[in-house]
Amino acid sequence: MACRIVLWITTGIEPRQWVAVHRKHHAHTDEDGDPHSPVLRGYAAVQFGNVGMYRKVANDPATVARYARDIPQDRWDRLFFDHALFGLAIGIGLLCLMFGWELGLLAAAVHTVTYLLLNGAINAVGHRYGRRPYPGFATNSQWLAWMTAGEGLHNNHHAAPTSAHLALARHEFDPAWPAISVGRRLGWLTVRHPAPRLTIHDPERTKVAA
């Protein structure tokens, strides 16, 4: 619940919609049907227009019903989390209360631009530039991983999509994993697959170095 609230007031994301778009991306990676592939649409279109591509698919009831059918809408969704603008208004209001309205609005603007550009980079950079230790168009960029809580290790994510730990080699680091590990030990969260489960295999790299 805490994660849902934080996401709601900082991004306005509706969890079922995000899950649906993300799963569709994995089902049709860099082929017809992928919601935001730079291979199909070009780097600039995804880097700067990712939010529009996301909203187009997220607002399709058929897509959400198909790809997020295991995540039913609950009363918290109906009351709060399905109302993105309400959540964002609360987040901006809190910033204004904490820092004053001028600095609060400036912080909200900086957060919005940074979030949208980094979110776009995960798909734009993450499918065009970087290392490909596993087959596919997705790439690994450690510098991007530092800025996006590990999401820049995008090739690893596509190779082991159910893994919460995105660093699969000794020279890689997932900045989010220490926080996930602490939360897991404190009983605040559950990790379904602590060990990476590869769905994409490279015959020259059959052993994952933890």
Structure description:
The chain is mainly α and 210 residues long. Helix content is 56%, strand content 0%. It has 11 helices and no strands. The longest helix has 24 residues, at 101-124. The protein is globular and about 45 Å long. It starts with a helix and ends in a 25-residue tail after the last helix.
Q: Helical stretch count?
A: 11
Shape: globular
What level of helicity do the residues show? 55-70%
The arrangement of helices and strands along the chain is: HHHHHHHHHHH
Distance between the termini: 30 Å
How would you characterize the largest beta sheet?
A: none
Runs in which pLDDT lies below 50 for 5 or more consecutive residues are 202-210
Number of strands: 0
Tell me the fraction of residues in β-strands, as a range: under 5%
Mean pLDDT across the residues is 90
Gyration radius over CA:
18 Å
Q: From the helix content, strand content and strand pairing, which structural class follows? A: mainly alpha
What structural keywords apply?
mainly alpha; 0% strand; 210 residues; globular
Question: In terms of topology, how is this protein built?
Answer:
Blueprint: H1 2-10, H2 15-27, H3 38-41, H4 43-58, H5 61-67, H6 75-81, H7 84-99, H8 101-124, H9 142-147, H10 154-159, H11 177-185
What is shown here, in short?
The protein has 210 residues and is mainly alpha-helical. Helices cover 56% and strands 0% of the residues.
